[in-house]
Design brief:
Elements (H helix, E strand, L loop, with lengths): L11 H46 L7 H85 L5
Amino acid sequence: VVRMKSFRFSLQRVLDVRVLQEERQQRALAAARAKADAVDAELEEARSRRAAAVKEDGSRPGVDPWLLELAWRRRTRLSGQVRRLADELSEARRIEDEERQALIVRHKERRVLERLAEKQRREHERERLRREQALLDEAAAQRRRRLWTGDADE
């Protein structure tokens, strides 16, 4: 009986590294998404504070000019904060998109190796079946020869 070695993918270590890289990239994307979501929530809160300040400051006629100046400075500060957070959100979304694209690349790299491994595994199985069939054919041929020559063990 001829025994073949069990299948071993020659690039298994490379595939293992690709899997780890993809998992690391998934974590990086999740972190980037969480950062963008946090900035988005902070931006919405700043917009709400700015809107409340505008509404509050505009609802009091005959207010002391010093208080109007103070309210104007507050609105200006809040508007600046909204602009800064909007810029920060834009950057966070850009980074999230980059991380997503990097994940797509990592996923494709892993899939290429997995498909190669599967192809080699199927080829290995075909070769095993071919050898097994050849062995069975040879055994059957020997049995026929023995029967024809009269050497059958009966």
